[in-house]
Amino acid sequence: MEKMIQALFNNEVEAFTGLQGLQQLDQTKDISLGETYVLTKDDDGKTAIRSAKDKAEGTGVVSGGLVGGLLGLLAGPLGFIVGVAGGMIAGSASDTLRAEDVSDYLDKVSANIPTGKSVLIAHVWEDWETPVDTVLLPISIDLKRFDVHEELFLPAQSELSKTNEAIKAAETKYLEAQGAEKADWNATLANLRTKREQLQRQLDVNTDQQEKQYQAWIDNTQPPTTEPSADTRERLQNRLEEQQKRLAQIKRNR
């Protein structure tokens, strides 16, 4: 299942240990790993990205920008902001993050990182939670998971559908209105159409990114170089079928 994982650590060393653990799980095919980010807040309250990797693109940290379409949608019009160690958050991150022009999602998540702590954010596919739990729970302070499809993409599609319905209702009201009321409904329609364009553009961009990520996972979901057990072969085959099914669904929903 496609997840966003957030793990809070006491220090940067432990965060990188957690990242390396996830990378090893990816190599052994226990999970499929996508974008990963490590954010660290120093004792002065400034936050910096220590690592950013988009496996679908094969590129690393950026200066002046950040690859990673999924996180862009997380910070999109629905305001799906994941809190760290305390639920929903508000505010902004340090000037360091602003200068790097990172996504609003990372900006807002960083605002709630306790001073001196580090956060690992990873986009993964996991068949069951035991491998990641085994790696991260012993060294992390807090570990959260979010189902990307259920908690992000379905609400996004629902929001777009609601906006389309609102536009149809406003168009009817506009045709029935007279004088100043007609001008008001015209302004309402303009705002709703702008919202729809923004939603659709955001979904299109991130659907492109998600397609690439799923294709990369599918290409990489092959048995390990050592002779796999029957259970491993079955697990990887099931993962491959689920990923192929999800990719086909994403393409149909365009």
Describe what this molecule looks like in 3D.
- Mean pLDDT is 77; it is low at 55-68 and 76-102.
- The protein has 8 helices and 5 strands.
- The chain is an alpha+beta fold and 254 residues long.
- The longest helix is centred in the last third of the chain and has 42 residues, at 179-220.
- The protein has a 5-stranded antiparallel sheet with strand order 3-2-4-1-5, with helices on both faces.
Tell me the number of helical segments per DSSP (H or I, 4 or more residues long). Answer: 8
Binned strand content: 15-25%
Low-confidence stretches: 55-68, 76-102
Oligomeric state of the chains in view: single chain
Overall SS class: alpha+beta
Order of helices and strands: EHEEHHHEHEHHH
How helical, in percent, are the residues? 40-55%
How far apart, in Å, are the first and last alpha carbons? Answer: 21 Å
Rg calc: 21 Å
How many DSSP-defined strands?
A: 5
Biggest sheet strand order reads: 3-2-4-1-5
Shape: flat
The major sheet is characterized as:
5 strands, antiparallel
Question: What is the secondary structure topology, with strand pairs?
Answer:
Layout: E1 2-9, H1 12-27, E2 31-41, E3 47-53, H2 69-74, H3 95-100, H4 104-111, E4 118-126, H5 130-136, E5 142-147, H6 148-176, H7 179-220, H8 230-252
Antiparallel strand pairs: 1-4, 1-5, 2-3, 2-4
